[in-house]
Structure formats: C-alpha cells, structure tokens
Write a structure and sequence with these properties.
Number of helices: 5
Length: 234
Amino acid sequence: MRLRRFVVLVGAIILLVVGLASWRLLLGNDLAIRTIEVEGGERIQAETVLDIFPVKVGDNLWQVNVGQARLSLLKATPWLRDVQVVKAYPDRLRVILEERRPFVVLELAAHRSVWIDAEGYLLEPARSTEVYQPRLRGLSVAETPQGQKVTDEASLQALRDLFAFDGTFLEQFEDVQFNGSDVTLTSRAGFQVFLKNFSVKGDLSLLKRVLDVVEGSDYRYFDLRYNQLIVKPR
C-alpha cells in the first residue's frame, strides 16, 4: 500500500513538473523568437516576406504552427513555388523560399499579357518591352489554391515542348494559337502549321526536316494532325 502511494505521489510530482515546464514554454519568454531568417529569395526581398509573414519576432517559437505559416506565404504571392518554415531552437525561425521562374509571356483576353512559369502559374503583368514574338494565345486559366494557373496540362506540355525545341526554330513564327487539342502556328512568311498538342515534339522534328528542303512561303499550310503530313500549295 505504501509503495502504491509512493508511486502515485511520484507520478503526480512528475505531472506537475511537466505541466509547469509546458506552461513556462507556452507563456514564458524562454522561447521568444529573436530572429527570423529568410533564405533563397531573389525577386522577393526578405523585408517583403517579413511584412506578410504571420509570425513575428517576439512570438513564442513553441506555439508557431509551421504548416499554417507556410500556407499563408504561398497564398500571399504567386512568385513562391514552395516554402519551408523550420524551427531552430531556442530562438530562431528559418523561412526557406523556392521562387517561381518566369517562362513565357501569355496573351489573355483583352490583349492582357502576363508572365507564366513552366508549371503554368500566372506571375505578373508583362511590360510592353517584355512582350515578344510569337504571340501565345488561347490558353485558359483558373483559380487554384496557389493562384491562377493554365488549366490544360496537355497544352501546357505542348508549350514547354515548343520552347525547348531546336535553337531559334520558333523565331520564324509570329503567332501560336491553342484551340482545344489543336495548336496552330502562323509564320512570318505567311504559312500555317497545324499540330496536336500531344505530339508537338515529334511533329516539330518532322516539320523542321521538311522546311529544310522546301520553301515554306510556297505553301498555305502544313497539317500534321492526322499521323501524316498534308500540305497545301499556294
């Protein structure tokens, strides 16, 4: 009986000590954040991050919800691809940024031009000096938890394939129009090329070989949508 009382007493003391320690951690200043370090930002300045970050110097590090803090930053600016929030006890919080990279300028409705990244997220309006040929049109966007984004993944992959293709080949075209699964390229020489968005890479290779042999301006169009090359002379 005495042993049991002793065990109960020791257990109560341990619980009391743990409770007092937890209370001290939660309400005391022992774990007050003294430094918030922002790493990895190039376009986004550390001062900007600290302004929109929900956690501030002086907050209790123990109480910081890193998941909520991360999501708040991702929702605050489209330029962030990912964020890590790391507690560095006893008094530091690290915020590690992964920024999105501008990829191409996309023309939306009403001739509004915006930068998108390679994943299709809209970043910021493009200045007139940044809008270059070819014009990219016809891609629709929708709201997502991380901002507005191009919704058609097949067409987005086709866009990546277009700009990854051989050297300066794409420079001879002034307009790229997406319409469902069809992609239409209009050249400066006046001919058009019709492709399917799921076969752009292979079709461009064939088209380049053809244009190395024939003069594109002698034709109205080259159609590669039907597993064969169809040409229309002028």
